[in-house]
Specification:
4 copies of one chain form a homotetramer.
Chain A lengths: L1 E6 L4 H11 L4 E7 L8 H4 L16 H7 L2 E4 L6 H10 L3 E4 L9 H7 L6 H6 L1 E2 L2 H10 L2 E3 L3 H15 L9 E6 L14 H4 L4 E2 L7 H13 L6 E6 L6 E7 L7 H11 L6 E3 L17 E8 L4 E8 L3 H16 L15
Parallel strand pairs in A: 1-2, 1-3, 3-4, 4-6, 5-6, 7-9, 11-12
Antiparallel strand pairs in A: 7-10, 8-9, 10-13, 12-13
């Protein structure tokens, strides 16, 4: 059994990591840390875990973590990981970071929307943790920058088509909708029940920091500069993310070609499901799972392609994808720990 | 007091008509009909109305309705109104129809997505009931075709800009999200709580019948053929509709010009509110009201315009707009019966 | 027009006061205050009010409030009103206080669960603002202590039966369920969407501070010491409160007598609706209204009485009842400003 | 591997059976049937299962089922199982029935609220499937009548106390609240989203058919006739059930004794968790699990005991408990197939 640790275990993504790793057949969850809940049993923070997860949240201490864990997940607000991760790597640990700090190969992009980067070389070396696209790099990486939830939902449908030149790089639109758990567990006026229920709204319109992250990957895979217009919205639900993508087929590309390309690109991948023709995904059907469901609608008359992806923002959009990356890094079965039968509702 | 009747009073839009008309200062709600609940007190169907609305649902009978009402609202499934409305008009009644039957000037468009039209001349004569755009025609009309909820949310932001040539007619996208009340009150698997909650999904992608309705009006106001790519989605909430529109400014148009155009176009209109710069609308802020809130975001770097509209699908998207049309037809204050102070939540 | 002021206008109860008073036909809302939002337009705090309520939130200042308002509502956390209200009364203002500070005639009860009372004499003089029971006292009062939401839902069904000796004073149980708006607008972990949705739970079991408030009134009306077992619960919804009461009929009382007593007690009151036999209330049917709906089920075989009441916790449970009290104090129609037609959903 | 079949696999409880049994380490799910969806792939009915559960729904045929399965679950509307189960038993199958048909030892009780029983002898022989109470009988049973969801939530807290004589048998009250999935998957007006959200209400007050089921077991365990006053309510959530129980301690029983009794009674049982003092359960903390969490509050001053239980109505209240029963019948580990790490939210 490989020993793993989670730094930042009591936010929603961290708690999902605890859930998945504690039940993972190949690893032992050796240590979990939390600044806010140091010293508190994990099952006091999440009473669902009572009688199941007997761990105590600890204050993070580098030496101690390095003694007890071989692989470390960091689920912390950005800026903190770029201080911590280099030290873990220096001690020979392999790290999967769920913040934005190691998602960018071009540090300038990062600095334009976050802050100065103090571990630029490590960021350039890191693998972008989208396993269906960068599996080889991930399997060898010392540091994986786990993708943002929105970029995951945008990139999985678009990358195969851009790589194949089946859609144009101009005029791309991503209209994305997320459940409220994406806002995290810290209370704020915008996340309280009475302000969320019966409220659907956009936020950070054309200004969200996941936009440059998408653009970097889209540009790399398209082989040229790509900008996607991106508008995130908040849905009155707890978990789930659905993104509707609008694209224009390039040249004579047909709907059948586009569908075939997606189907073949993901043919052997356990976690991407292409919906049969005439069907579109729902967040309910991926809730609690690591799946990304993709629906394809081609409007031949108007030459418009509509792609719709659905993920659980906390699983494929965060903790599940992080574990999928770990599985690749350690040579486990890609779906290990992530293959429970989904709930029907 | 003008006497009004509602045919089809027990669906959600019909019940909203009852709510608004019963409290309207200038009219008397003289008769309400319902096939399903004929003979049943309205407050048995909607117990909220107990002690307030003492009306009994009746079976529709033409003579009786014509004896008792001067203005008639028809809130029926499409195809039925085209049989009923001509008879009402023949008796000198003025009619506001909430179905699709009288929304199209070009009957061919209607027939392409609905069915053969048996009252084509009356449909061509009818006014399209978007009061902010067609107020003059509405005030004189014998029949008003009350717009669909989706078209209302799409047209109010776009029409002023298309009329002024500030945006291009190509590449328009409307990504729309509706609360579940839009699906009506007839039970179906897709509308039961357990299938809706935690579920966000698209439906009728690029195939919804409101699309040709939008296209007809957009084309008329733009002075040339316009097709908008339209994808409706279902939100786990009861009331509300938010539509995110993607457009490209034409030529050198600036964000300030676009905002100024919308502000001036709606300067004197009681029910359209342009959000201050930096703010975007939420369905919660228009819930239960006849407002349409519009947010404007201009991405100058990428020359992209994003417009976001929010309405209550049952009020500005149906019954409220119908009453607003009646107010214009009868020379009442435009906001009569629709000006209650909104709920804070 | 009577001039009124609201101290503490930006919490949920305060905002409901603004909504109702701004639309009230007999009063002018002259001043609103808010510590947190002093200087901010009210419609920035509640964007629903844009274009409707042009008021600015102000810092509270005694002289200024007394210059501008004849009647003052205080919607503040308990302990603050007992400092402010005496000063307002000293200037000849009539006050309706929505906190607990003036709800108790027996100050010892208050002090046992809140804190030392610094305006005991005024508390003893104040009227308990349950208009259906204490209308006369309210109409003459200088200070009205507006009831808690839970006590309102418990007292309206029980008081008529206890006064008439139709139920026993022992063994009373109130199992109450409240929407989340009752927890107020200040963000806390317990009120964020992800912790509320799909969560139903009890809180402050047999230890809620509304319990002694109920007991004081029940005892007074029963003419002897009464204690009711009270368990509040939190429902994943925004507005609404439903309380299920369990009682034992006294002696030979029949279900028909009990129902008749409630019907006659509330015969002339505009805001209490006794459900027809076989029907029970729902929070949805009183949402946004000042109604209290009461259902009566008598299990003759086991000699058990079950009473169920439904209110909107922010209206009949707070702001609406406060305005109803004001109407009595000022000799207005009891339902003035509170008689909009209810929403069907 | 034991071969199991599910008759009635597409209702919510049936689908949960499919989920659990398909992932169960000791059994093979050999056949599933559905009248409504015969011939349809299960993952078309529940798209969450795409790529996971490759089964096809079949029309039920006795011979075929008996050829392919050793143990059969029947998840059908009551009245049907009493025709089918005897035939399965006659072929040597062991059956777990999720309807009411085999829950009663006293067939008269069944017939008083359901209909004439055509398999009375088998009903009298059957074990009542509450594993924590009737584990021995279950392990030997040919037929297990799986308890109703409400009875499960009522009996687990009360039985140990009644058996020990720690509470009085008179005056018991069960105020129960259920998520909407308890109403099943057939669409009805009462289960559509718009009628459920923001609606909390009671139903079948003192007339629910689970009441005699509770009474039978309570009476048996108390050693004398017991009737509990039972009021079920509907909560605007999908899954979960919380029941608040009111009891009077018998004689000098203390809170500590009561807590100790519950703790020791369930000391070795994997699925009942007694909350630490000062904590109460939430439906969110048992969502998707087979746990029953029980909170204990003793009001010493008023000699009142309040017990609160939380379960997932589809798991411990239906499919999970059925599988737990199967585990006992087949000598598997009691928690086999039911021990996934719970979701944090």
């Amino acid at each position: 059994m490989v020993r793993v640790g989670v730094i930042g275990a009591t936010g929603y993504a961290g708690a999902e990591l605890v859930r998945i790793l504690f039940g993972h057949p190949e690893v032992t969850l050796a240590a979990i840390t939390s600044r806010q809940y140091a010293g508190v049993p994990f099952d006091r923070v999440y009473p669902a875990m009572k009688g199941v997860v007997p761990l105590i949240c600890e204050e993070f201490a580098l030496d101690d973590m390095c003694d007890r864990a071989d692989v470390v997940f960091t689920a912390l607000p950005h800026k903190i990981p770029m201080a911590v991760v280099p030290e873990l790597v220096a001690r020979g640990k392999r790290v999967i970071d769920l913040s934005a700090d190691f998602r960018f190969r071009d540090v300038n992009r990062y600095e334009a929307v976050y802050q100065p980067h103090t571990a630029a070389a490590l960021s350039e070396e890191a693998a972008y943790g989208l396993p269906e696209v960068y599996g080889d790099a991930i399997s060898r990486a010392r540091v994986v920058g786990n993708p943002g939830c929105y970029p995951t939902s945008v990139l999985l449908p678009l990358v195969p088509l851009l790589k194949a030149g089946l859609i144009r790089t101009e005029g791309l639109v991503a209209d994305a909708k997320s459940g409220v758990s994406g806002a995290g567990r810290s209370p704020s006026l915008g996340s309280i029940f009475c302000e969320v229920t019966e409220s659907f709204k956009a936020y950070k319109v054309a200004g969200h920091r996941h936009n440059p992250e998408m653009d970097e990957v889209l540009s790399r895979e398209a082989g040229g500069a790509v900008h996607i217009t991106f508008v995130p919205h908040l849905v009155p639900m707890s978990r789930g993310m659905l993104t509707t993508l609008y694209a224009t087929p390039d040249g004579p590309a047909t709907g059948a070609e586009i569908r075939a390309r997606l189907t073949s690109f993901y043919a052997d991948r356990p976690f991407v499901r292409i919906c049969p023709e005439g069907q579109v995904p729902s967040t309910l059907h991926v809730r609690g799972t690591n799946y990304c469901d993709i629906g394809v609608v081609f409007d031949d008359e108007h030459r418009r392609l509509i792609l719709i992806s659905a993920i659980d923002n906390l699983v494929k959009g965060a903790a599940g994808q992080a574990v999928q990356n770990m599985n690749l890094m350690l040579g486990f079965k890609e779906s290990a720990g992530l293959d429970a039968v989904p709930y029907p509702l």
